[in-house]
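Recall the central idea of this unit: under ordinary conditions, the amino acid sequence of a chain determines the structure it adopts. In this exercise we apply that idea directly, starting from the sequence alone.
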Amino acid sequence: MGRPLRIEYPGAFYHITSRGNERRPIFHSGTDYERFLEYLKSATERYAAQIHCFCLMPNHYHMLLETPRGNLTAILHHVNTGYTNFFNTKWKRIGHLFQGRYRALLVEKDSYGVELSRYIHLNPVRAELVKTPSNYPWSSYRAYLGMRDSLPWLQKRYLLGQMGKGEKEAQKKYRSFVEEGMGEPVSDPLQKTVAATLLGSEKFIEWVKERWVKNRGFHRDIPALKKMASPPSLPFIREKCDTVFGNGAILSRRVALYLCHRFSGLPLGEIGKFFGGISPSAVSQNSRRVRVCFEEEPELSKKVEPLIEALSQ
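Accordingly, the structure predicted from this sequence is:
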């Protein structure tokens, strides 16, 4: 299974989800929930994590997390590993508590922060654990309404600041915003993710692709990078083949046509048009012939391997 994409930089804003192994409970008692909150608190002290909201469900948790130091991995290692050690010791068990790697969705804060906080705070209602989110003790929602004062490390200012200037006014508007989601269905912001990794405006997505896909390089074991990357253009592929086989060479054209068919993602008709107006069937036939040549001529296959490697990135 491919590794998830981890993008870390100072000031990054994430929606974090981590589930119990085999969907089993990760909390058995109130003490467990309280101890997990202690790990969140220590993460803010030790790693400067800024936790904007959270919801601890019986077999998973959600969190909006900001990383001023760009140290997401260290923060989640501290929280998940520390809590796992506590849980295993307390309940006399061994092995993994959480299912695989946590999910970290990189979010454009200003566009989706408030909307995601509503999604997170309504989790217990959707799961039918409570009728209203203010009845659930293991989320940050009560703190946002001023009903809980024991979370001084919780970063409430940003989200409440989107609601109003005065604290009381902001709390009232935030409560209305969240609880109106219990009536008429509101859209799930997570359905707007790109490559299961990003959530934001087109400008934000393009910035991430420019900064983290093109410069970071391609990794076959990180599927999200492949989903976000733009396929190689037809002129680019043709130029690469001419470099290897010679400009205008017949073999260069045949290999380029094959590689365009394989990697460009474009319709056969468009590929054929680029190569002088040949038919879609001719594009397919050329690809079959080139594959046979690779099998019959190992030296040719060896020459093309670096091209395939470069275009797979």
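The longest strand covers residues 12-19.
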